[in-house]
Each structure stands twice: as structure tokens, then as C-alpha cells.
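Ticket #4471: structure output looks truncated?

Reporter: J.K.
Steps to reproduce: submitted the chain below (316 residues) through the standard prediction queue, then opened the result file.
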Amino acid sequence: MKVTLYTAPTIEPVSLAELKLHLRYDGGTFADNVDSTQSIPPGSHAIANDYTTHVGASKEVLGYSAIVLLEAGTNAATGTADVKIQESDDDATWTDWATGAFTQVTTATDNATFEKAYTGTKRYIRTVAKVLLAACEFGTSIVRNAATSAEDDLLNAINTAAREHVEDITRRQIMTATWDYFLDAFPSGNAIVLPFGNLASVTSVKYKEDDGVETTMVVTTEYLVETNGEDFGRIVLPYGETWPSFTAYPSNPISIRFVCGWTTAALVPARIKSAIKLLCADMYRGRGDAVIGQSVVENKTAERLLASCRLWGNFA
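Returned output as attached by the reporter:
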């Protein structure tokens, strides 16, 4: 049996900004550290009694400090503008952020700038607006503390290396990734245990005959999926079913593609994040030199934090 990574994680459990805060790192200029993106462009916006006409561009904010600026110009007589912040995990499905509504802009409060700090946990935010009674002049911007520096590449590499080391220790996939799992034969029992825990879904189960013909098994009729929370997930035979009988192809005849890992950094246990930060601090301090008694593989505090997170038992 063997496993190969098909799609790597797209985010880290510890963001670059969080890591810099842990390291007490202070680098870069003000211009380097801050960026601003228009969400709703400034201008005169027509009457629209909905939040679907004036929809702003989105921006990724996960791991950043972010504020949203509402810059109000002149409201036409009796005009009002209602602006709110929406959030999303995938930049596709949007919901209102619970505390993201700005105070309504009226003719009494126009020609002013309002700001609201985003303290949610989603990956993307945007602004939407409703205009009543008369056209209103305004625009919105999303300002992020980007905290860029000449050492960002190094810090990102260290962060990834620490996460991968924690995955080795815990035998887990921390952030969402897709894996291919290969078997030489179906098991004698009625279940296949999948590695890494936090099973989200099984994309496919396939087997290949000796002549190269590949068959895809059908979920619910030929196999069932047990996600099992943070434990090992399983592929289980339905009642009365048996594994297919076939003459196996000589190389990786059975392949299982599955998705596992926590979907957002906010879901990752604090002890795992803390261990990653400790390992990052060791590697950053060492900068490639051996740190006696404090190497990445010998951080006892990190190992104690991870002891209860380790997956025990075998898979196959």
C-alpha cells in the first residue's frame, strides 16, 4: 500500500501574520505592510431597494488584520445608503457578517468616512449596498495589514515545514488536501481504513483488471463512507455485499481518492497551532544551524502538546 498527495493544502493553519506576531517580528515599511482594494467603486450610485445591485469586489483577508472603509460623498435630497460587510469561505457563497452593518448614511451624516474592523473568521469579505429615495455618492475599500517583508519567503517555508513535521508526528492531514491511496488487494474484512483522519469525502474507489480495464465502484450500493470525525475514516461494505473479485493489474490495481483535513484554520485545535508556532520559532532562530537541545525534532513542549492529537492504530 502507498499514498501520494494529489492536491496540496491551499492555506496553512497558522497564517503569516500570526507567525510574525508569535516571533515578535517587525519588518517592512508602512507602505509594504498595508494594501487597499476598492470593493464598491466611488461614485454616484442609483436607487436600488436590494443588496444585489450594488455588490462590491471581494478580497481575501484570512490571516490579515483588515478594516473596511465607507467613504460617503453627497446624498441627493432624502437619499439614504445602507452598506454592510458579507463574508465567505469560498468566494462563492456569501452571508452577512453578524456585526458588519454600517450606520445608515443620510443627508445629515454624508460627506464623511466611516470604518469598521473585520474580526470574523472567513477567508473572503466584500461589501454590498442598498440605496433608497435618491442617488447617493459613496465608495468602499478593504484595507489589509499585509505585513510583507524581505523574509516572507523564508517564514512561509518554515511555516510549511513545521506544519508538515506536525503532520508526521500526529499522522494527520491538518488542512484540506486530496490524497490517492493504493492497495494491492481488497481486505479480507468488510472495511478499508483510510489514513490521516478528518475524512471529508471519498472521490472514487477504482480497481484495474490485468488487461488494464478500470472499473469505478458505486457509492451507497457497492460501498459506504464513514467519515468518523477526527478519527480514521473508513470505506465499508453494505450489508450482504462483498469486495469485487478480479485478476489484479500488476501495479497499483486498487486506487482510492479521498479528501481529508480541517477545512478552515479556525477549526484546527489550539494545541496543534501552538506546536507549529514553537517549531517555527526554533527553525527561525537557528536559521539552518543546529540548535543544541532545541532542534525541530526535539522540541519537547511541542511533542507534549501533540501527544493527545496523534492518531493511533493502523490503516489499510
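Triage note (M.O.): checked the attachment and the full C-alpha cell line is present. The helical segments are 16-23, 30-33, 152-170, 270-286, 300-307.
Status: closed, working as intended.
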